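quick one, 64 residues, struct below
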Amino acid sequence: MQIGCGRKLKTIRIAALADKGWRKALLEDPHLRNGLNIYNDQVTCQPVAEAHELSYATPESILA
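---
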């Protein structure tokens, strides 16, 4: 197990957000996209939408 590996990944993702902007970075990185739960009053996390009986929109469909 490498110590510090998580820090390197965080740094890479932060750099992607800064360089590309949040929308493009999320479209290109599924791990960043998984962190999106709500955008523009739309629930983008399916388990949350189901638990609260709300409509669900895929992150890809609202970010495109």
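The radius of gyration is 14 Å.
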